[in-house]
Amino acid sequence: MIVAVIGLGTFGEKTAVSLFKKGAEVIAIDKDEILVEKIKDRVTHAIALDVTDERALRSQNISDVDVAIVAIGDNREKSIMAVAMLRKLGVGRVVARATDPLHEHVLEEIGASETIKVEEEMGEIIASKIVAPHVLQRYNFAAGYSIVEIKMGKRYAGKTLVESKIRQNYNLSIVALQKRVPFITEDGKSSYRIEINDCPMPMDVIEQDDIVVLVGSEKNFNKLFGDIAEG
Fold it and tell me: Nearest CA to 29 among 88, 85, 77?
């Protein structure tokens, strides 16, 4: 996959580097040569150019990328112009950072495939960590629904999935169990390996250190989180 990340502030830089680490071919673009120099060894290509310059963008074959991410957050006008230019040059999927509802609406109107509300999403993540510190990861995949990785704690340790009554009490589905399995290394030392059970059965046991992957509605998750917090 070829991804162009446009705007190399904190959000853009972290996005570009993370994508590169995950195996994407990343083209990092910013007008600021200092930011380009800073990231050049951590992405596939780093280019200093003005994204509103059509000729400069064409020279980089920008239309060949699979996804363009407009990560500009400090200049709404430039963000909007970048999205418009990318769409004009034939980029099929343009993901753009939106700083407020009006900005989001304009980006969608001019052709952004998706918008990312970084500040709002970070606020939700921080709130979730405070309210539900036992939650390790949370992925929103549809309005009002999430996939959650959670440590269930002592309350559920030693219980089978049937005995936990998670489905009956909370209407949440357990889709996977992640376990730390002890083993002895070749040099005789104790260690652990991670094993994923992606098809858990009713009689599988939840151990205290297991990570349980659940899917369901936010309303039902909030009920579970409240009960776990109460002990």
Answer: 85
